[in-house]
């Protein structure tokens, strides 16, 4: 039986993971849940799964949960903050960590899980974007395994016969729905609203990843993540628009063969595979009925319209510092867009200007990564003040 800690249990990935886990009580035991500030949902999850520990944002939400648990006669321990996340990611009883915290906040607990030899189900792509080389090194040194949860990377993971044999791979192709604005022109993008950007046509996701999907930053971050996960140079990683989100990625081999994974757009499918690997289990999702599928479309993305995707390729070419700047500036830009400080087309403008401040350097420690992240955020906030 796998003993599981979920980092980000109240988010979309965390909820989907718990849905799959709930179907297989003989295979999985929830040891700890880490939420953020959704106290009510974290309480519901605690009542249902009876974890030994839960983690919340701060002392205030911790007190709320402790009071509610006391009234219910539940003895679950309540922790808070980054130390709490690190604790449940590294606890000796835990075998598997679902790393599903959004953004750079997920880096430290993911590193802790790796240092302690855990099986990591990685849904936090920002950890790989910021610290891919370092995270791979720590995993290798501590016999920790990474299994990707993102639908595209999970698809590649499923079809590769040997995860380490990259010489047989000619290239990998990540598919992208294109989000809600795939058919907009540049002028139309200038007028989009927050509500429109959050309304993804195919996937149900949180606010941050929904905006990233609308700008195609999400796909660019996935390119960077794929380069680290599968040890491929960026010239061997392509992106194709695929509005139907049925085929989740392709692997093209040197012999001319291509393999792909297809299925309905539901994150329970890759989560179930990651949880049960190398076996397969029920996910609660029906298979795609091939005879009922619409015509499947594929075409190259317009990098002039989706500049964030191009900025990701540029950052990957420049190295780790630029990838850290890219991620930090994007997080700030998305927050600024959601709060109405900047418009949609200013997101890539802000990121591009911030990247001009990045200076390439060797990065060898988590502390160094966090220092660069702080500098990048300061630079981005300075630029925002000039823009508004």
Would you mind describing this structure in some detail?
It is a single chain. The chain is globular and about 60 Å long. Helices cover 47% and strands 15% of the residues. The protein contains 16 helices and 11 strands. It folds into 3 domains: 2-148, NAD(P)-binding Rossmann-like Domain (Rossmann fold, 3-Layer(aba) Sandwich), CATH 3.40.50.720; 149-315, no CATH class; 319-388, RNA polymerase sigma factor, region 2, helix turn helix motif (Rna Polymerase Sigma Factor, Chain: A). Strand 2 (28-34), helix 2 (39-49) and strand 3 (53-56) form a beta-alpha-beta unit. The strands form 2 sheets. It has a 7-stranded parallel sheet with strand order 4-3-2-1-5-6-7, with helices on both faces. The model has no long low-confidence stretch (mean pLDDT 93). Helix 4 runs parallel beside helix 5 (107-115) and helix 14 (320-338) packs antiparallel against helix 15. It is α/β, with parallel strands linked by helices. The chain has helices spanning 12-22, 39-49, 59-71, 81-90, 107-115, 125-141, 151-159, 186-189, 194-197, 207-215, 217-229, 268-276, 307-318, 320-338, 346-355, 366-387; strands spanning 2-7, 28-34, 53-56, 77-80, 96-99, 119-122, 145-148, 169-176, 237-241, 247-253, 258-262.
């Amino acid at each position: 039986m796998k003993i599981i800690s979920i980092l980000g249990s109240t988010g979309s990935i965390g909820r989907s993971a718990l849905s799959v886990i709930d179907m297989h009580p003989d295979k999985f035991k929830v040891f700890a849940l880490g939420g953020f500030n959704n106290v009510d949902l974290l309480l519901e999850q605690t009542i249902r799964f009876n974890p030994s520990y839960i983690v919340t944002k701060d002392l205030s939400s911790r007190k709320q949960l402790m009071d509610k648990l006391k009234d219910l006669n539940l003895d679950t321990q309540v922790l808070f903050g980054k130390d709490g996340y690190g604790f449940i990611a590294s606890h000796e009883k835990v075998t598997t960590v679902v790393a599903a915290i959004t953004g750079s906040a997920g880096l430290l607990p993911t590193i802790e899980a790796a240092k302690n030899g855990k099986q990591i189900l990685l849904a936090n792509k920002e950890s790989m974007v910021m610290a891919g080389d370092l995270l791979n090194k720590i995993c290798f040194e501590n016999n920790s395994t990474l299994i990707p949860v993102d639908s595209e990377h999970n698809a590649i993971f499923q079809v590769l016969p040997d995860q380490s044999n990259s010489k047989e791979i000619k290239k990998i192709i990540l598919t992208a729905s294109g989000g809600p604005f795939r058919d907009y022109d540049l002028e139309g993008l200038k007028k989009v609203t927050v509500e429109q950007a959050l309304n993804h046509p195919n996937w149900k996701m949180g606010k941050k990843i929904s905006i990233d999907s609308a700008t195609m930053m999400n796909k660019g971050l996935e390119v960077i993540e794929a380069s680290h996960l599968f040890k491929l140079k960026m010239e061997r990683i392509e992106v194709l628009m695929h509005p139907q989100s049925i085929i989740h990625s392709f692997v093209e081999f040197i012999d001319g063969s291509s393999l792909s994974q297809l299925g309905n757009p539901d994150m329970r499918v890759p989560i179930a595979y990651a949880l049960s690997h190398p076996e397969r289990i029920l996910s609660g999702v029906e298979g795609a009925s091939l005879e009922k599928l619409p015509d499947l479309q594929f075409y190259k993305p317009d990098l002039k319209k989706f500049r964030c995707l191009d900025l990701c390729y540029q950052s990957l070419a420049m190295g780790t510092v630029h990838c850290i700047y890219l991620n930090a500036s994007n997080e700030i830009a998305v927050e600024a867009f959601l709060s109405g400080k900047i418009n949609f087309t200013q997101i890539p403008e802000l990121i591009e200007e911030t990247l001009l401040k990045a200076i390439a350097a060797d990065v060898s420690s988590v502390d160094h990564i966090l220092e660069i992240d702080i500098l990048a955020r300061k630079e981005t906030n300075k630029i925002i003040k000039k823009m508004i």
